Structures are given as structure tokens and as C-alpha cells.
Amino acid sequence: LNLRKEIGHKLSTRWSRTGYLIFINGAPMYGCFYKKIPIIETSTFRAEFCATKQATEYLRGIIYKLIMMGLPCEDPTYIYGDNQSVLTTTSIPISQLKKKSTLIAYHYVREGCSRNEWRTIYVNTHDNNADLVTKDLLSGEK
Prior knowledge:
Low-confidence stretches: none
Radius of gyration: 15 Å
Largest sheet: 3 strands, antiparallel
Number of strands: 5
Oligomer: single chain
Distance between the termini: 19 Å
Number of helices: 4
Strand content: 15-25%
Order of helices and strands: EEEHEHHEH
Helix content: 25-40%
Strand order of the largest sheet: 1-2-3
């Protein structure tokens, strides 16, 4: 799963948008998910953490569907993101987060990491495939 959060994209409302690509055995499954987020977060960290929680909720649903179809899903899923602070915080059991929505997102993502459902891995911004669904790319890029 490649995750990308574009913050304050729309200039008139400063809404953000979240996009992620899901791959199974190297092939895209659902292609992509793109959603405008009508909540304006005041920090990049909180916005990225809420996007990570949203992506992991969706991922947990897909894993459940695959298991119901009889496909074994025993290995953890790798979540690639470009925000190092969010990805590092998911691997640290103790955190000093103060906002309730961020704490809920933290515990949800952290629970999946500790249960070995998924692992979060950093990927460089220029190598993140989920940029295709969140950024307006110029003709010469990617």
C-alpha cells in the first residue's frame, strides 16, 4: 500500500486530499483511492496520521475480503509513506500525543503494527507511487 496525503491542496478552502494505491503480489488491485478531506488540520503530522488510519482501515477491509474468498493472508502488509515522523511514531510504543483524534489514529495504526498485520516503511517522496493520485503532475514529471 502506497500512501500519500496532499495538504491544503484547494486554495480557496485549503481542503486536503488523500490517495493510496493498493498492490497485491506487485499488481494493482483496486487501482487507487482518492478522497477530498473537508477537515482542515493545523499540523502536517496530524493530517498524515489521520490519512494513515484511513488507509489502514481500508486495508483491513480488503484483507478480510481476501480471507473470506479463501486466499491466505498470513504475511504482514507493507505500508509505504513519505512522512518519516508518522512512520517512526507507529513503531514506538510510547508517544506524547495530546490531541484525541491523533491518539485514536495512533492507537489504531499501532495496534495493527503490533499484531503484525502491517509494517510501515519510509519511501522517498520522489519514489512514492501514490503521488499520481494526489498531485497535479506536469507533463515532464514521472
